[in-house]
Design brief:
- By secondary structure, this protein is α+β, with helices and mostly antiparallel strands.
- The chain has two domains: 89 residues; 73 residues, 2-Layer Sandwich (CRO Repressor), CATH 3.30.240.
- It has eight helices and four strands; from the N terminus they run H-H-H-H-E-E-H-H-E-E-H-H.
- A four-stranded antiparallel sheet has the order 2-1-3-4.
- A hairpin with a 2-residue loop joins strand 1 and strand 2.
- Helix 1 runs antiparallel to helix 2, helix 2 runs antiparallel to helix 3 and helix 3 packs across helix 4.
- The longest helix is centred in the N-terminal third of the chain and has 25 residues.
- It is elongated.
Length: 172
């Protein structure tokens, strides 16, 4: 079926615009943390928000107020969990992954790569993205909690201080 009624299209336009504005307002109220690079926890909330928005737009049985309440609930739960995880190391370990050292002193750490399911080619691509052409010039590379790879070259490693790799060094 190509077209059912103008009423349905007008509903989608009005509910879509209103729920979109409500979502943007909720995200602004909840703070920058909601919009950061995604870890697994943030990804679940983001996907759930998208699914909720789509449901409000396309499912006539879900009212705009129910959809906005559902989005507010998801954002509030994320806020509470992240607020608590900042204050509790146990909850933080449950919610967030730990960074993992994947290169030390110019050598790829194959066990860490296998454990994290990262290929050598992916690491080499990340090094190139950081302007590094030779693995041996890398003091350390860390697979961060959001899936990105941070690279410290030999020249920069000394400037970073003793605590730079503290969290990642535990999981090498």
């Amino acid at each position: 079926m190509m077209f059912e009624s103008w009423t349905d299209l007008v509903r989608i336009l009005s509910v879509g615009a209103t729920s979109y504005l409500a979502l943007v307002a909720l995200l602004r109220i909840s703070g920058k943390r909601t919009l950061t690079k995604l870890n697994a926890f943030d990804l679940v909330v983001t996907v759930a928000l998208g699914s909720t928005l789509a449901t409000v737009l396309l499912n006539k049985s879900v009212t705009l107020s129910e959809g906005v309440l559902a989005m507010a609930l998801l954002i509030s739960l994320q806020f509470v969990i992240t607020w608590l995880s900042v204050r509790s190391e146990n909850l933080q370990r449950l919610v967030k992954a730990e960074p993992t050292l994947i290169i030390r002193d110019g050598s790829l750490l194959d066990d860490a790569l296998r454990r994290e399911r990262v290929t050598r080619e992916e690491v080499l691509a990340a090094l190139r993205a950081h302007g590094v052409t030779d693995v041996s010039s890398v003091a350390a590379a860390v697979l961060e909690t959001d899936g990105s790879i941070s690279v410290l070259s030999e020249g920069n490693a000394g400037k970073m201080g003793n605590n730079t790799l503290q969290g990642a060094a535990i999981h090498h």
